[in-house]
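Entry 14. Structure prediction run on the chain below.
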Amino acid sequence: MAILAALQLGLVVSLVSSAGPALLRRRLAELAPEYVVLPEAIARTLGPLPGEVLSTSPAPLSRPLPGSHTYGEEDPAFRLLSPFADCMAEVPAGLAHHSVLRDGELVFGLEPSDAVAAPGWDALQTQPLLFLTTLAAGAAWVELDDNDLDAEPDIVARHGISLLGVGATTRKHFLRADVDPPKRAWFGNLTDALDFDAWSALAERMSGNKVPGFGIVTNAACAGTLLFGLPAKSFSLNVWPVPGLALELEEIGARGPLVAHGDAGRASPSLPDSVRPAVPNVILSRRDEAWVLAGSLDLGPHSHAYPTDTVVQVVKVSRPDVRHADVVLTKGRWPNEAKATLLLFLAVGLDGARPANLDLRAIRKLIAEQVGSRWVPDRIEAYPLEPRSIAGEIDREHCRAQYLSGALSSKARTEIFVQLSRLRHIFAARKQTD
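Output returned:
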């Protein structure tokens, strides 16, 4: 209701999903809104915020509401954070309107009698355009949580859901319990971790109920669906560009836009400059008239950008024994599944004392509370070393190479490197005193 009210008033709508207070503060600072709508209990935990905080408590109207606003085609209607890059995108009203109508008619094939739900799907990635796509087609949007299916196995049938977006948790519910399938079709997010065996098992389970499935690559910050598959009985990675959207391949390792020399590369849809940085880093290869999705560039879990700066800042501020920190991302078991390792650099004390054993559980709890449970690193490694820095900032490329080569672990066990780090700490402390 807040989204529809804001659009009727002609505002530029932004959306932030639930997260720890540290990450939420950073996202609000990037969006720099004039008005913020938050539950009062959450607003109290965040401290001073940009913009005026509007109460969510019911109150009588002090003045009559203005009439409906009409956006111009180039007017920004949404200012959205892209989960695939550390950037903000302004989506023009004309592009959003075109995408909403196209997705409802051609990608999802919605009818006014349909009911749509996507429990567990990341709101930053899909909303508010998936919700508006449903309403524009005359269909009903059903707000469900992942755990609702576990608590009520008949909830899909009870709400008459005909099209269901399935995520990893929802998929587990279908495979381990007798959950009612949607009436018409299901769809999966092809930027999630591609556990091919699990998705194939779900497709087989659904096909027994004559419910086909398909996959999509979508991001609200670049105006909705970019790639989609056709409904089928089996799980397929064959995709096509959405109608009306030109697509070319770019070389994967190029520093700037460069057309791919072969039949494989990074998908580069033709979109306005205001939303191009928000495009997911999807890798495609050509197969006849279709494209095969080979995964995404590893940025973080489910292809999303990992909030390295926020995690590092939270740990350094809260843990005085940590002088420097960084996050290294490595490939997981499946495409689109990156693993995060938090590197902690603990300087040897001026008296030569080694750092005491860290309470890693406390650090994980700290990150879960301040940034969000989904960003808790898979591993934490601590070294009594001083990392290489450039102009006072940690050299992340060097640290990553040293960690992956095993050099950091080797140096941490070698006394000369530990003592060299101690000397650097002493010199730095004396320089600050002078």
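Residues 308-433 form a domain with the GMP Synthetase; Chain A, domain 3 fold (CATH 3.30.300.30).
Filed with the rest of this week's runs.
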